[in-house]
Amino acid sequence: MPPSIVVVIREDPRKTHRAVEALRIALGLSTGESPMTVVLLGQAPLLLSEDLETIKDVEILEKYLPSFKQLEIPFALLSGSRSDFDVDPEFKVSELSEEAIRSLVADADRVLVF
Q1: How far is it, in rounded angstroms, from Cα 70 to Cα 68?
Q2: Is 90 exceeded by the pLDDT of residue 5?
Q3: Strand, helix or coil at 48?
Q4: Residues in CB range of 51: below 8 A, 6 or more apart
Q5: Reduced to 3 states, what is the DSSP secondary structure of residue 77?
Q6: Most buried among 12, 38, 56, 70, by the most CB within 10 A?
Q7: Three-state DSSP state, 68
Q8: Which of 28, 29, 11 is closest to 20 using CA atoms?
Q9: Are 73 and 38 within 8 A, CB to CB?
Q10: CA-closest candidate to residue 23, choices 95, 75, 85
Q11: How high does pLDDT run on average in the chain?
């Protein structure tokens, strides 16, 4: 069984390019056989919002977002944050409790944190 991967992004995409770069790295990791989930914490759910104007490196982000939709890469957000960030409904998003996110990260074989 291939190792599971969790990519945690907690950078504010309005303040640093690291959030978009982390998403690009996650997309590259998703092409293998390993199951992967992207966890968006803090202001990171803005990466999936329908209003991207304030995001650093938005032109790069806009190139990669369609692939996340097409590949149905799963995202996990804290419970209640989907509506707070106006997340595009075309993404495969689960809202999880803090405990469920901790378990997801703890149970993963590989974890990358940005």
Answers
A1: 6
A2: yes
A3: helix
A4: 86
A5: strand
A6: 38
A7: helix
A8: 11
A9: yes
A10: 75
A11: 94
Strand partners, 94: 76
Closest CA to 47 of 79, 91, 98: 91
Q: Coil, strand, or helix at residue 40? A: strand
In this prediction, residues 12-25 reach a mean pLDDT of 97
User: Which regions of the chain does DSSP assign to beta strands (E)?
Assistant: 5-9, 36-40, 75-78, 93-96, 110-113
For tokens 């990171």, what's the residue? 44
Residues 6+ apart with CB under 8 A from 25: 7, 112, 114
Other residues' Cβ atoms within 10 Å of the Cβ of residue 72: 10
Q: Reply yes or no on whether the pLDDT at 2 is more than 90.
A: no
List the Cα angle 33/107/94 in 5-degree steps.
Answer: 75
Quote the CA–CA distance of 113 and 94 in Å, as a whole number.
19
Distance, CA of 107 to CA of 89 (rounded, Å): 27
